């Protein structure tokens, strides 16, 4: 079993982000009481299933008092069964990381950090409205490795406004020079309700050229594989044996429990999501009023989930899994996949269908085609 804990606090909003978080920390104490209660109320969902990973995401877990994270982790360790050597990750912003914070995290049992670097170019960081600069980013990773965190990931972003190929290459080189175990590199998504979206609509920004984004992706793949990283998911690269087990479980459709406002859970049959509103979340937990909504997955939902998760990874969709599905889905898949095999965007290897590099560039379109839409009555 996997456990995700959402920490919905950010010191300020980044211009591209649409995750649920608040910039006022006044409710933090009450929030941690509520999330602890949710963890206790839901322990039966993990009965007999030791936690293989725990992930504190956000928001910005490093922005809150580190004692809250340590106490919550102690509660989970006491109340849930833990697998041997579970992966315990905390997301952190470079400017929050201090030797004292790192010590507290290590003592609490955290063994993996995911650091939101995004870029090593100060102009880009300012445009994104990040709180740190490139120097702080490098220093934070060095402090983390010096403190004994040998499993560190950093996030990078490409497809940014005014980011040319040269600047992207510089960020990749800086990341490689830090010799960390994992790099997540995301192409910017333009979300409604973000500052970037507002600037785009007011002609203050323009979207980057598609051709440039393609060249940035190819450069990323070439540089990181040459540096010894394994490209195991569209946006994720790892040193051998450092694949993120928590996120990989999502892509393999394994069950997980998500606690905190806006967190999602999945048990193999039902998808459930908590209210994305912290005051309401706290009120409803305290009153034991339902704080989530849920839906039972149909066979079509399960097939479509399989496509959009498995196909993102280097393991792809296995023929055996397809064979065991209702023939309606396997027939649809076999018919539709032919065109993508013919144009080289999907390759068949080890009895699985796997996206090629070209296929990854067209992944949204390919997944959409392979998904099943039931005929209307
Ligand atoms: S990117 Fe991270 S730090 Fe920035 S607003 Fe979103 S959750 Fe907060």
Please name the defining characteristics of this protein.
single chain; 377 residues; alpha/beta; TIM Barrel; 2 domains; nine-stranded mixed β-sheet; three-stranded antiparallel β-sheet; 15 helices; 21% strand; globular; binds iron/sulfur cluster
Overview of the molecule:
The structure is a single chain. With 377 residues, this protein is an alpha/beta fold. The chain folds into two domains: 249 residues, TIM Barrel (Alpha-Beta Barrel); 80 residues. The protein contains 15 helices and 15 strands. The model has no long low-confidence stretch (mean pLDDT 96). The protein has a nine-stranded mixed sheet with strand order 7-8-6-5-4-3-2-1-9, sandwiched between helices. Helix 1 packs parallel to helix 2, helix 1 crosses helix 10 and helix 2 runs parallel beside helix 3. Bound molecules: iron/sulfur cluster. The site of iron/sulfur cluster has 11 residues, from loops.
Secondary-structure blueprint of this entry?
Blueprint: E1 2-7, H1 28-41, E2 51-58, H2 66-79, E3 82-92, H3 99-108, E4 112-118, H4 122-128, H5 134-146, E5 152-158, H6 165-177, E6 182-187, H7 195-201, H8 210-226, E7 230-233, E8 236-238, H9 245-251, E9 256-259, E10 264-266, E11 270-274, H10 278-286, E12 292-296, H11 299-310, E13 317-318, H12 319-323, H13 327-342, E14 346-349, E15 352-355, H14 357-361, H15 363-370
Helix pairs in contact: 1-2, 1-10, 2-3, 6-8
The structure holds iron/sulfur cluster.
């Amino acid at each position: 079993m996997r456990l995700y804990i959402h920490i919905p606090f950010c010191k300020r909003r980044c211009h591209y982000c649409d995750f649920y978080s608040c910039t006022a920390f006044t409710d933090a104490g009450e929030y941690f009481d509520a999330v602890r209660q949710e963890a206790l109320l839901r322990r039966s969902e993990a009965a007999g299933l030791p936690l293989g990973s725990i992930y504190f995401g956000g928001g910005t877990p490093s922005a809150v008092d580190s004692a809250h994270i340590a106490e919550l982790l102690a509660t989970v360790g006491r109340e849930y069964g833990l697998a041997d050597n579970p992966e315990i990750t905390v997301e952190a912003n470079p400017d929050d990381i201090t030797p004292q914070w790192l010590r507290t995290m290590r003592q609490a049992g955290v063994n993996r950090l995911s650091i939101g670097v995004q870029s090593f170019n100060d102009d880009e960081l300012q445009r994104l409205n990040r709180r740190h600069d490139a120097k702080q980013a490098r220093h934070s990773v060095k402090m983390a490795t010096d403190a004994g965190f040998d499993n560190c990931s950093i996030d990078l972003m490409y497809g940014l406004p005014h980011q040319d190929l040269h600047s992207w290459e510089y960020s990749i080189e800086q990341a490689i020079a830090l010799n960390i175990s994992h790099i997540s590199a995301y192409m910017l998504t333009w979300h409604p309700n973000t500052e970037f979206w507002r600037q785009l609509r007011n002609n203050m920004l323009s979207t980057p050229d598609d051709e440039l984004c393609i060249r940035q992706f190819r450069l990323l793949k070439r540089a990181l594989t040459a540096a010894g990283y394994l490209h195991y998911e569209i946006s994720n690269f790892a040193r051998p044996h450092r694949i993120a087990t928590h996120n990989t479980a999502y892509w393999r459709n394994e069950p997980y429990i998500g606690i905190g406002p806006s967190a999602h859970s999945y048990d193999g049959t039902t998808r459930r999501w908590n209210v994305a509103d912290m005051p309401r979340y706290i009120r409803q937990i305290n009153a034991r009023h339902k704080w989530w909504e849920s839906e039972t997955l149909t066979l079509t939902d399960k097939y479509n989930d399989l496509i959009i998760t498995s196909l993102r990874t280097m393991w792809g969709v296995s023929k055996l899994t397809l064979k065991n599905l209702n023939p309606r889905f396997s027939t649809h898949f076999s018919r539709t996949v032919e065109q993508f095999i013919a144009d080289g965007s999907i390759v068949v290897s080890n009895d699985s269908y796997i996206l090629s590099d070209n296929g990854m560039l067209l992944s949204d379109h390919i997944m959409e085609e392979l998904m099943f839409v039931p005929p209307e009555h």
